[in-house]
């Protein structure tokens, strides 16, 4: 189905639409949760169709397992465990683990150590 890269303007439009869908999902969750889940589905379809990612701000707001919209404190909870952000989906019981600021520290350290190795007598 996917036929290579889409032009940038198309991806921009897709991103904007996904943002709108997720915003709607958030706004309507408390009154119409089933609509929110549908918005997520629509956003995911756009994401596949245009071969582009869900905008980062929203990528943690839906369950990667059941694709339901997650509203913290209502159908999901977030905890920090072992330096990982655990997002628990109460719809299906799935837990998403997201590393919490790990890469920065390691990169800096690797750089530092490679400098130290230089042998100057
Ligand atoms: Zn789920």
Structural write-up:
With 121 residues, the protein is an alpha+beta fold. The protein has a single domain, classed as Single alpha-helices involved in coiled-coils or other helix-helix interfaces (Up-down Bundle), CATH 1.20.5.420. Helix content is 43%, strand content 14%. The protein is built from 3 helices and 3 strands; from the N terminus they run ααβββα. The chain has helices at 8-28, 33-49, 103-116, and strands spanning 76-81, 84-89, 95-99. Strand 2 and strand 3 (95-99) form a beta hairpin. Helix 1 (8-28) runs antiparallel to helix 2. The termini are far apart. The mean pLDDT is 87. Bound molecules: zinc ion.
List keywords for this structure.
Single alpha-helices involved in coiled-coils or other helix-helix interfaces, 121 residues, 43% helix, binds zinc ion, 3 helices
Entry summary:
43% of the residues lie in helices and 14% in strands.
The major β-sheet equals: 3 strands, antiparallel
| CATH second-level architecture | Up-down Bundle
Q: How many H/I helical runs? A: 3
What percent strand? Answer: 5-15%
**Arrangement of strands in the largest sheet:** 1-2-3
CATH H level: which superfamily?
Answer: Immunoglobulin FC, subunit C
Q: Termini separation (Å)?
A: 61 Å
Question: What is the class in the CATH system?
Answer: Mainly Alpha
Low-confidence stretches: none
What is the N-to-C order of secondary-structure elements (H for helix, E for strand)?
Answer: HHEEEH
Percent range for helical residues? 40-55%
The CATH topology corresponds to: Single alpha-helices involved in coiled-coils or other helix-helix interfaces
Task: Indicate the structural class.
Answer: alpha+beta
Bound molecules: zinc ion
Compute the CA-based radius of gyration. 19 Å
> Based on DSSP secondary structure assignment, what is the total number of beta strands?
3
Principal-axes geometry comes out as flat
Give the integer mean of the pLDDT values. 87
Total tally of structural domains: 1
InterPro entries: RNP4 (IPR016432), Rpr2/Snm1/Rpp21 (IPR007175)
Cofactor: Zn(2+)
Region (Disordered): 102-121
Keywords: Cytoplasm, Endonuclease, Hydrolase, Metal-binding, Nuclease, tRNA processing, Zinc
């Amino acid at each position: 189905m996917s036929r290579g890269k889409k032009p940038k303007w198309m991806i921009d439009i897709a991103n904007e639409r996904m943002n709108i869908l997720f915003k709607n999902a958030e706004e309507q969750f408390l009154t119409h949760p089933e609509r929110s889940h549908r918005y997520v589905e629509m956003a995911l379809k756009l994401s596949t169709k245009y071969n582009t990612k869900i905008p980062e701000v929203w990528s943690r707001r839906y369950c990667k397992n059941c694709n339901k919209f997650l509203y913290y404190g209502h159908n999901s909870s977030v905890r920090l465990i072992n330096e990982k952000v655990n997002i628990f989906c109460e719809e299906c019981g799935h837990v998403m683990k997201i590393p919490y600021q790990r890469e920065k520290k390691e990169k800096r350290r690797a750089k530092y150590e490679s400098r130290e190795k230089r042998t100057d007598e």
